Amino acid sequence: MEYRKIKDEDNDGGTISDDVENPRGKGFSVASVSNVPAREQSKWKRKSVVTLALTFLTSSQAILIVWSKRAGKYEYSVTTANFLVETLKCALSLAALARIWKTEGVTEDNRLSTTFDEVIVYPIPAALYLVKNLLQYYIFAYVDAPGYQILKNLNIISTGVLYRIILKKKLSEIQWAAFILLCAGCTTAQLNSRSDHVLQTPLQGWIMAIVMALLSGFAGVYTEAIIKKRPSRNINVQNFWLYIFGMAFNAVAILIQDFDAVMNKGFFHGYSVITTLMILNHALSGIAVSMVMKYADNIVKVYSTSVAMLLTAVVSVFLFGFELTLAFFLGATVVSVSVYLHSAGKLQR
């Protein structure tokens, strides 16, 4: 498998366990030990900034998606919007690189030119996300929207399991308990009068939900492995190659799903100011996700997006008249306990 290749090669560059997340790795010299407090403080601030940015962007994401609908449906092509998201992410990465080249010059770690072995791993997460996104259209034939939101929480567990298997990162028993509580809390917060229907989901729906969770978890963990394979590599270069292949696969999705509609109505048919803001939000969220994977990990990403789900519900009270239920408050409490336990478990490791 490709991820084993990622873990084993480039020994003088360090394995994943010796990346920026592990200042006590084998390659850490005695001379640099004195700088650990400053480095740790700088790394903590960087993690905090990207995590808060991801939480804010994700919480506003669902609101913009709802606003982009007209009469309860999308007038624009979802596949063209996804293509533009990848294009914008690629453009932002290039703009950031251009600024770095101007101030620091072109170096081995920030140049776009690379080897075939480095590039060949980038299409894999792009293909996985494409298949997962296509499955989302078919699962609604078996599951309603509330049921889908509940089943989507399987992604939390799959991420934890794959994080342990692929990246060989060990979670403490307290952290595993916190992870299970996070899944339970998110599910509880989404319960409503129709939630029992999820238990009546046909076998095909359950299979699709499990496959989607595994694809999402594997794509996220695999992307983290790619990004952390070479810690000194500039994140904007890595993003550029990720998004180039994302553009290619989303172009394929346009050809498969909306080719006739795009040819007859135009590429930007149904777009509005809200649609444009939604695309910008998705692009910035994608960049924030990659930075969280670079400077933190997938576990932090899962907690960030879960907290963002709760924030979205609170904001929806004022914007859409959404009513907070007792289940939501209980779920939010469980999620808060989970966050605390995860932090406590991390300190005990």
UniProtKB/TrEMBL annotation:
It comes from Corchorus olitorius. GO terms for molecular function: pyrimidine nucleotide-sugar transmembrane transporter activity. The chain crosses the membrane at residues 49-68, 80-101, 174-191, 203-227, 239-256, 268-290, 302-320, 326-343. Residues 1-26 are annotated as: Disordered. Belongs to the nucleotide-sugar transporter family. CMP-Sialate:CMP antiporter (TC 2.A.7.12) subfamily. SUPFAM superfamilies: Multidrug resistance efflux transporter EmrE (SSF103481). The lineage of its organism: Eukaryota, Viridiplantae, Streptophyta, Embryophyta, Tracheophyta. One of its GO terms (cellular component) is Golgi membrane. It is a multi-pass membrane protein. InterPro entries: EmrE-like, Nuc_sug_transpt. Its main location: membrane. Keywords: Membrane, Transmembrane, Transmembrane helix. It is found in: Membrane. This is UDP-galactose transporter.
